[in-house]
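It would be a great kindness if you could assist me with a short task in structural biology. The matter concerns a single protein, recorded as an amino acid sequence and a row of backbone structure tokens. The record follows directly beneath this note:
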Amino acid sequence: MQLRYSFRLYPDPGQQRALARAFGCARVVFNDAVRAREDAREAGRPLPSAGELSRRLITEAKRTVERSWLGEVSTVVLQQSLRDAESAYRNFFASLKGTRKGPRTGPPRFKSRKDTRQSIRFTANARWNITASGRLSLPKIGAVKVKWSRSLPATPTSVAVIKDAAGRYFASFVIDTDPAADATRMPETDQTIGIDLGLTHFAVLSDGTKIDSPRFLRRAEKKLKKVQRELSRKQKGSKNRAKARLKVARAHAKVTDARREFHHQLSTKLISENQGIAVEDLSVTALARTRLAKSMHDAGWSSFVHLLEYKAARYGRTLVKIGRFEPTSQTCSTCGVKDGPKPLNVREWTCTACGTVHDRDTNAAINVKTAAGLAVSACGAPVRPELVLAQREETGSHGFPTEPRAA
């Protein structure tokens, strides 16, 4: 499995200028590749190959007066920019054919120097390395200071240097992990858990544990409103407006980092303590069109589930997603009777069949675990057996298998 390890970079002023030059050259080569393909498409000619674009836009362009400054950066950076353009077109064509999963993607767009995120990539043949003093040595940029928050588990295959909207620099290393070594890092366990994601509580577990929602965005709204108001009062194009925009970006970055840290800590804890985890396959895109959209994006359900997915695959755990239409909040987890839909303000309800008093979220988490087949009885059999076709005399029942009648 390939993973990314990101670390903060602290380039000096000279290195920042060199990185800005590399960002600009990579952006120009990418835009030239998009323009060359668009010109060929409009003229009805075959699209140029990657080799032809590399020769025209890099090798021959360096010899011209207009593009001579491309020689001031590493050639690997320019080649990787061409690869990014090729990958963008490949994804676009695959999306048109329907062979690519997920929402449809549009054609590649031209990059701008005003984009909030800039990045370049160095592969192994760029001869970058980590010095003995712990600095990241990049060709034609220099040895950049790195804040190592942890050690790399293996030798990286490539590194990407990223500048985000808040003006921060990061080095993102691609690491090939060892499955055998990852399996030994997590102790064996036979515990399983079901998770019901919500807004009042970020997550409610099937064992009754309730994890409060930190509401990072809601808590930072007062400060965000202040810096956004200051930005709106600055004159467009002025240096003061650029400084105010940076303050807004840093305030949002602080919220994003806190949310990501919370997701990482919680997902790692759940993965380490449980062999099997069950969650609902929620349609966040559809739910985000409701009046709860802001709170849902603040919770970050999709990001959290994505972390559970890759960590479960890495450490040999089982993650099961149940259907989004499973009536987990309507079904009694004790007797299995469906008691009908309930408004969101109903947090506790009593089953009309067995009289059990349920906490809405805990009951839903138990049903999530049961629907995923992770709940077992004392004899080791699943609590909810597989559904079977109803017999003639059973038609009209609530759909759960019943014991055969005595003769």
